[in-house]
Write a structure and sequence with these properties.
By secondary structure, the protein is an alpha+beta fold. It has one domain: 2-Layer Sandwich (Mago nashi protein). Helix content is 23%, strand content 29%. The chain contains three helices and seven strands; from the N terminus they run H-E-E-E-E-H-E-E-E-H. The protein has a seven-stranded mixed beta sheet, covered by helices on one side. Strand 2 and strand 3 form a beta hairpin. The longest helix is centred in the last third of the chain and has 17 residues. The model has no long low-confidence stretch (mean pLDDT 91).
């Protein structure tokens, strides 16, 4: 990992993954507009908790200004949870480097994925890279939330 992370990465959601959670996914704009930033935590039973940036553009260096809700935002069906697990395995996620970047890209996003398998928890940060796992997770939550009108 680099010696000096971007301030937004330093301020990412660094809370430990809850014991029965499968995954935490964070999307942080690399530009100076945090309105599209969001994060969600997926539990093994399919519950997920989603928090989006409020849209107030007070400090671009603060990626999240709303807490994760205490009650689930929604529920994925077992096949969707199984697909997340399959994508983690296909990506060989637990062997991924902790930090990957494409420094030729000026804008883009930071993707932060934290996942659990058995007793192992691993976090990977992708700067200006969108690996297939991040594409899958982004599409999954965007499709699901558009259906729920969140």
């Amino acid at each position: 990992m680099t010696n000096q992370l971007d301030i937004r990465l330093e301020r990412r959601d660094r809370d430990p993954l809850p014991p029965d959670a499968l995954l935490k996914f964070q999307v942080i704009n690399r530009g100076k507009d945090p309105r599209d930033n969001y994060r969600w935590v997926l539990y093994e039973d399919g519950r997920y908790h989603l928090a989006c940036h409020s849209g107030k553009h007070e400090d671009w260096r603060v990626p999240f200004d709303t807490p994760l809700p205490e009650s689930p935002t929604g529920q994925l069906v077992p096949d969707q949870v199984a697909a997340v697990i399959a994508q983690l395995q296909q990506a060989d996620f637990f062997a991924q480097p902790a930090y990957q970047a494409d420094m030729t890209v000026e804008d883009g996003s930071f993707y932060v994925i934290t996942a659990r398998a058995d007793d192992q928890v691993h976090e990977a940060i992708y700067e200006a890279l969108t690996p297939p796992l991040a594409q899958f997770l982004e599409a999954l939550i965007l499709i699901w939330t558009s259906q729920k009108k969140i």
